[in-house]
Amino acid sequence: MRTNLGIILAIIVGLAIVLGIASLFIDFALAAPARPPRAPAAPKIIQVGEPQGLVSDAARNRLYIASRNTNSVLIWDENANKNLKTIGVGGKPWGVGLVNNRVFVSNFGNNFISVIDAATMNKLPDLKLEDSRAPIQCAGNPANLAVNSATKRVYVALYGGPGRVAVIDAANNSLVDCISANSGTFGVALNLTLKHLYVTNRDAMNLMVFDISKTPATLVQDFYLGGVPFQVQFNPNTNQVYVTLALDAPDYGKPTTLRVFNADAKGVKNAATKIVGNSDPGGALWVGQTDGYLYLAASTASQLEIYNPNTLALVKKIVMTDPFGIAQNPGLNRMYISQRKGNAVRIETTDGEGAPPTATPPAIATETRTPTRTPTRTPTPPLIATETPAPSATPTRTPTRTATPTLIPPTATPTRTPTVTSTPPLSPGEVLIITNPTSALLTFSGMAPGDQVTKPITVLNDGTLSLRYAVVSTATNNDGKNLMSQLRLTIKSGVAACANAGFSASGQILYGPGALGSLNGLNVIGNPAQGFQSGDRALLPGASETLCLNATLPIETGNEFQNASTTATFFFLAEDTLGN
To answer: Based on the domain organization, do 421 and 275 belong to the same domain?
Structure first.
């Protein structure tokens, strides 16, 4: 029988940042609370497998996230910051919308819409778009969707087949209309004042405007764009329509042009053009509900771009891996951005960049060309072979392994100590490293010989510069029993299942098995000295990685460790890689 030694283990996470090559040090260690943490109240990322569409139920503070590679929807508690439930849906879920206390999920891999009761979080019967018993048939790879809360209608773009928009009555979960659009229907947006629906058709290279005041909807305008349109969004503050457009013939795979149109009862009129970041394969456009700014998920450019809609001037650019979908909870001042290749949802606070923009149209050079096509237009040039109907599941981008810092045992202010003379100037930008969780990573009371505890920790480069980081572990020995040296710590990366049962099955060992820490600080990953050091970890801006930590009390541990305790603090120390 194993003896319970009453051992207490606790591990605390600390952070340290070195900006540029200067010896500036910012201590976020919870063991030294004289300097409060800079981390926000909410975690910076939510781990989700290839997230795509998402929507916030602001009334209940629940976030619904479609996971494309797991065919499921994760329901996240925005108050408690935890996963409430995961619900299986159809193949390759894409768009997510909330209306009439129901969450609608378009499944690109199937011809049906998944429905979830927002009050109970229970799955309701699927809505088939191609049902021989139903009066309306409207199949074809559901993609993006838009909702009208006033009329309780859901509009789903159907990319496959002839190109159509399925219209769903959310009051009774029924298909009430199938709007004929054109080949490659992709984006949908609503103008609630004019009761217009804006639809982009990628293969047909056009923007269509429909009157949805009655059923069936009627075509108002067919506007030929001369390139492949991706997303479309309407701004009620400026009464304008935005379209991301690819003009790079013959591939048409780089939507780096933003077309702006003024909306009126007859459809749209050209207003402006702006060069933006590449949002292929369909990064979202979003109008901020609190600041009124235009947000663009520039997926291929790996950045979230924020524009002033009055001038189209770039207000801010946030570097992150493969941003795609955008959702917002104004009550919590949060913006959520799905990062498909990063397998995470990024959380940004929406403090606002100033007063909400007024309804003044952009004062920039406007286009004089107004190539419209009439509703009788026949099919347009086909989409080239390189265009794919849906974003492919691509692996997360691996950060380049650059220099590794040497760890100096952390004192009151553990620092990397570069010499100030003959060093290059501080590089522009910001080094910001964040962990999730931010504290209380491992706790174990009443530990017995042979017991172990395993937990993951996610490390995120939340700054604008590439960084390398190292980790130092300090441990306490207040009772003089030296438990910190008896416990065996192992740190791995790439572990498929970070739990006791799955720890040994996969992953690469970065440290250990070795001591948990030391009084003066033990280098467990890399070395915090300035410049490239063996074992350092490198992260590109917006990139993250998950470390898996396992602490084990050897089976041969004797009674001399009865009632022993220790607390380890991990210091994450980072520096930018430019010039270091």
So the answer is: no
